[in-house]
Design goal:
The strands form three sheets. Strands 3-2-1-8 form a four-stranded parallel beta sheet, with helices on both faces. The chain has a two-stranded parallel sheet with strand order 4-5. The protein has a two-stranded parallel sheet with strand order 6-7. The protein is α/β, with parallel strands linked by helices. Helix content is 44%, strand content 15%.
Length: 208
């Protein structure tokens, strides 16, 4: 099973902000207990690389990747730490090319026809749609899927437990991204049982 299929089976790619690397493994284990075996650790904090390394080393059942990656240097740091995939908030030809040349799964953020076409030129077939609630949500992705039938989306931003079922049911959705299953506050406060419960709920709705 390839990485994009793992995304689809999970139904959700949790966007995880780790401020202290010691919280990475307990968060990963909480998600796994809830049936979600993928996680995107964002490069918004100084702990990101150490967090990815810890999960990669100690949680072999978890597919861990790096999010909010905006430079090839961050790609290199993330992959060296053990990241299996890269997610970018926007489209960077440098970032995508770096990943493609090395066989690393990459999901760039694309919300316009021009960005989607640029991604397709580099062989990308699944893109991040961020922030989904700002750029038209399901209505926009449905419209874009007409001329780009081979493209699937991972909407992030404004997706939550209330609208998850609607998003997941759309045929052009690969998976959804979101942080509500493992909020920064729940992670830092050690509310791992809550994370497991939210993950279980989300996976039961969106998982394949």
């Amino acid at each position: 099973m390839n990485i994009l299929e793992r995304f689809s089976r999970s139904g959700i790619v949790p966007v995880v902000v780790i401020e202290d690397a010691k919280d990475a493994v307990p968060t990963a284990k909480a998600l796994l207990a809830g049936g979600i075996d993928v996680m995107e650790i964002t490069f918004r904090t100084a702990a990101a690389a150490d967090a990815i390394a810890a999960v990669s080393r100690e949680c072999p059942d978890m597919l861990v990747g790096a999010g909010t990656v905006i430079t090839p240097e961050q790609c290199r740091t993330a992959v060296d730490a053990g990241a299996s995939f890269i997610v970018s908030p926007g489209f960077s030809r440098e970032v995508v090319s770096w990943c493609v040349e090395r066989g690393i799964c990459v999901t760039p953020g694309c919300v316009t026809p021009t960005e989607i076409m640029a991604a397709m030129e580099l062989g990308i077939r699944v893109v991040k749609f961020f922030p989904a609630n700002v750029y038209g949500g399901l209505k926009a992705m449905k419209a874009l899927s007409a001329p780009f039938g081979g493209i699937k989306f991972i909407p992030t931003g404004g997706v939550n437990a209330q609208n998850l079922a609607e998003y997941s049911a759309a045929p052009f959705i690969q998976a959804v991204g979101g942080s509500w299953v493992c909020s920064k506050s729940d992670i830092s406060e050690g509310n791992f049982e809550k994370i497991t419960a939210l993950a279980m709920e989300a996976h039961s709705i969106a998982g394949k």
